[in-house]
Amino acid sequence: MGLFEKPKSIWSILNSRPITFYTSSFPLEKVGSSFFHGERFTSRPLTGEGAMASHTFLSLLLFYFYTFHLVHPIHCSVGSNAFDTTSAPQEEFSEELLLKPLPDYKVLAHFHFTSTSPPSSSNGQHHHLFPKSIAQLVKKYKIRELELSFTQGRWNYDRWGASDPLSTANGKPPGVELWALFDIPTKEEIDATWRNLTHSLSGLFCASINFLESSTSYSAPLWGFLPNNGDLRYGALPREAVCTENITPWLKLLPCRDKAGIASLLDRPSIYRGHYHSQRLKLRSDGLNGIVIEQTLSVVLQPIDRTSWSMHQLFKKSLMGKCALAKSSKVFLEIERSLVSQNENILELVGEADMVTNDQRDHSTIYQYNVERYSEHEALDIRVNWKKLLQVSFLQTPLHASRFLMGSGNERGSIAISLQSARNSTKGLYDNSKNCFTRVVIFQVVPWYVKVYYHTLRIYVDGAIRDAKDVVEKINVTPSEDKVSPGTLEMMLQFPCGMMSAALTLDFDKGFLHIDEYPPDANQGFDIPSALVSFPDFISRRIYPDSISSPLLQSYKGRNIVKSYTEVLLVPLTTPDFSMPYNVITFTCTVLALYFGSMVNVLRRRVSEEERLAKSKDKRKPGLIPLLISKISNKVRGIKEDSANQSQSSQPILGPKVVFKVVLIALIAVLGHYFFNSS
Amino acid sequence: MASDPKGSQLRRILLIFFSLSIILPLSSPSPTMHNNNWAVLVCTSRFWFNYRHMANTLSLYRTVKRLGIPDERIILMLADDMACNARNNYPAQVFNNENHQLNLYGDNVEVDYRGYEVTVENFLRVLTGRHEASVPRSKRLLSDEGSHILLYMTGHGGNEFLKFQDTEELQSHDLADAVKQMKEKNRFKELLIMVDTCQAATLFSQLQSPGVVAIGSSMKGENSYSHHLDPDVGVSVVDRFTFYTLAFFERLDMYSNASLNSLFTSYDPTLLMSTAYYRTDLYERPLNMVPVTNFFGSVMKTIPTDSAYPGFLVAHASEYATISAETETARVVLEDEADHSKTYDQSEKGLQHILDEWLKLLEGKLGVKDPEVLVAYGLGSMVLLLTISTWLSS
């Protein structure tokens, strides 16, 4: 509600006006924007008598512009993509939204924004659509690839699908997950860069990503997460809160923010009310294509009315036209085959799509809507009605993975990963021939205070224990080091195809933390980040005809390995009761004092000696008469004597006599010094 | 017992000598203009039932943003996530009133430190500006000698401390040390500390840096209470002190003329159920002359310059030119500033004058250039002073 925000957002106020051309970044970069005023007029409806006059004015301006364009091509290359089609690659931006009805009557809304920046040799490049902060980040930290995700909730692989490209790419572990590939040769340099990168990202995205800085929180997997040459760093913060403050800076990377286009649908209370919420930033940078960033936001929403929903009901906002800077702006509705392949369509669509296509293998149907056609007067609103309520399920992973803790107490426990086969999903897998194997890769990072004993790995296949040698094809373990590094496990397993279930267990001891290392809410327990279970033999891909040019559907074509994240584990550790030490100290002190005092008494005290002393004292005591006399005399003389005694006794050591002596000596010394010098 | 007054006498004389030697090299305080505003807003409480502390902080955040401090100059520290907390019935929304008219969490909140990052260490690092090299700019308080800083803190506290996250405490000494360090590093011109916690007044007891005003919600031995409970949210949503502070600010806009004094007098102890405490003895300007927007807002001056990259001289000349065209309040403030610097000069001149006289007298009496003789005389005078002092004290 604030009138004044960071300088960027002053632009966002401008964005809401019908200006067609402006830059995405700081106002300083807005070189040559004054030339585009001519264009700005064209976008406004011209009415009445002023129309003619402005037409002539417009043509004059356009003429001026074109001549200018010929004379000063440098100026025009900044900021314009409508006129400057001749020059080499341009910065591009496209926005897409994919809606997908889920079998449990929820709706998946997947926002997909792509920005590309052509490669450039110069350091101080101007950007007009591409976010400058990201470009600087890539340059400074020499990032080849990076993915940052903020997730709240857990992707329900059972119901919402597991082996289609959307769920493999967008199912993310709860909290923050960050991984990056660097273009840096040495390991030390990569670590240092990673540390700086986490701080930069934490500043950019208002999150505590800087906690990934410490070497205890990130790891360098070689092949379990993504095959690499040791230049990958991976870190996860399972308990990081995800809220509005994270999406605000994320939206500021878009040229239109949330003021226009598809992003204007993002009503915060609606999207944070969802069952699952994952906001991602993925970037790739190479010399050939420059920098490409994909910003995606996947939300699973529950419509108020289960049988019928529309876009407006879901987001409480209407889509009134595209972001003027976007090259393409499309809304897709993807309907899985399993929802329509029944005898009758159980879904009914209201609204006319611009294009309807099926993917190559006929898994799903895509309805495409071009946002350009819609405006303030005619907002795009897709409505879907369920004609019949029934339970179907989407494509599953070959094995359903889940992870849990076993054991009790605060001393030790074990981690178990269970894999259950989902028979109905992929049939080719389940022939019982002996030569058929399914490969499963497990990647898990465990913080150092959960001390996993990797030699205790036990593997059960269909309930029977199996020798690890038979099942494990490849294994890479980096044991944890106390307060230095986490334990990393990368493991490739081979299971026979006919297997129904498998389980892995690993024992661990719980460590003790230093008193400073406990978080304020230590009693809540400690989170172990999700493990990643991937199936390298299975690839999720959907190929749509090339007639749809869409970065989102393009990404569907990639060779994405089917994978799923397991649950986050909550390990209760022994938490210190900070009042306890005080109790213990006071109690032991009391006991010790009592014991020690009585012991000293027993050992050292000589009762007979004391009695003798007391007797002798009594002897020395004056008799009754002299005592009386002295008392009387005291009374006669009164307190005078006492006070005199007191004052005498309280005479300080540094009396005036002493001081006088000191002064005298000092005077003599000074005089002597003076006389000796003058003579 | 008797040696004590003697000793103090001695100390006093030594102090006079010492202070005289210190005053000599003291440069005159440069009257830098107030040219920017910063705000550090801290909610130190974790856990859902402390919802109101976050609402307090966010209300202040909204207010200072509304009054013109940009997001990049606000350091917002929130110890827990209330807006997207699983217990929050209104996801991504935070209210400070049961009428739910104002969503404090809006669409444009930027939290700089959150969750476990809100620690005493980080708080002191922000104040003193001693960060690791990699800490981004958005997490730093980049104020300078022309900055007015608003420091707002809320949480649970007690006698001379404020709890952070239920595990750590910020003591009044820590705060005073940090402020002192800030002053020495020229990190602020004026600082307003506002604290809403139980026994808030005790937190200011150790402050000793000039240019600091402090407002606390309660005196020593008093509690600060919450204002009201929202049955829908399920917890108290705002504290009394902050509620009435906001009530005061809601009437204002960026160009309002209300003074700090009017803010201080707006607190009614019967409504607050505690006595608001102000510490103004370190602050030189009269409070009724200081507009609240000097701390809670940012009224920016536009300084037109002749060229795009002006030299210092050009900037100065135009600065004075625009000052004459300032608004009424600003002018009052500026005049006040000028007055203050004048009095400072006078007092300093007086001291220097006495010192000069004394030196001249000494030189005249001696009339010799020999330094040895001068030293001897100096020793002599010291001995004399010593005897006088002992004689006086005996």
Written overview of the protein:
The complex is a heterodimer of chains A (679) and B (394). Chain A is α+β, with helices and mostly antiparallel strands. Chain A is 29% helix and 28% strand. Chain A contains 19 helices and 26 strands. An eleven-stranded mixed beta sheet of chain A has the order 5-6-4-3-7-8-2-1-10-13-12. Chain A has a five-stranded antiparallel beta sheet with strand order 15-16-22-18-19. A five-stranded antiparallel beta sheet of chain A has the order 20-21-17-24-25. In chain A, strand 15 and strand 16 form a beta hairpin. The longest helix of chain A has 25 residues, at 580-604. The relative contact order of chain A is 0.10. With 394 residues, chain B is of the alpha/beta class. Chain B is built from eleven helices and twelve strands. Chain B has a seven-stranded mixed beta sheet with strand order 3-2-1-4-8-9-12. In chain B, strands 5-6-7 form a three-stranded antiparallel beta sheet. In chain B, helix 2 links the parallel strand 1 (36-43) and strand 2. Classes of the chains: A alpha+beta (679), B alpha/beta (394). Chains A and B meet through helix 8, helix 9, helix 10 and helix 19 of A and helix 2 and helix 11 of B.
What's a concise summary of this model?
The complex is a heterodimer of chains A (679) and B (394). By secondary structure, chain A is an alpha+beta fold.
List the helices and strands and how they pair.
The complex is a heterodimer of chains A (679) and B (394).
Chain A: H1 7-15, H2 37-42, H3 50-71, H4 73-76, E1 92-101, E2 107-117, H5 132-141, E3 143-152, H6 157-160, H7 165-170, E4 175-182, H8 187-205, E5 218-219, E6 232-237, H9 244-251, H10 268-272, E7 276-286, E8 290-301, E9 308-310, H11 311-315, E10 328-336, H12 337-340, E11 347-350, E12 355-358, E13 364-370, E14 383-386, E15 399-406, E16 412-421, E17 437-446, E18 450-461, E19 464-466, H13 468-471, E20 472-478, E21 487-496, E22 501-510, E23 526-528, E24 532-540, H14 551-556, E25 560-565, E26 569-571, H15 580-604, H16 607-620, H17 624-637, H18 640-649, H19 656-678
Parallel strand pairs in A: 1-10
Antiparallel strand pairs in A: 1-2, 2-8, 3-4, 3-7, 4-6, 5-6, 7-8, 9-14, 10-13, 11-14, 12-13, 15-16, 16-22, 17-21, 17-24, 18-19, 18-22, 20-21, 23-26, 24-25
Chain B: H1 3-23, E1 36-43, H2 51-66, E2 74-78, E3 113-114, H3 120-128, E4 147-154, E5 157-158, E6 161-164, E7 168-171, H4 172-184, E8 190-196, E9 212-216, E10 226-229, E11 236-239, H5 240-250, H6 260-265, H7 269-272, E12 277-279, H8 293-296, H9 312-324, H10 328-366, H11 371-393
Parallel strand pairs in B: 1-2, 1-4, 2-3, 4-8, 8-9
Antiparallel strand pairs in B: 5-6, 6-7, 9-12, 10-11
Helix pairs in contact in B: 1-11, 2-5
GO cellular component, one term (chain A): GPI-anchor transamidase complex
Protein name (chain A): GPI transamidase component GPI16
Pfam families (chain A): Gpi16
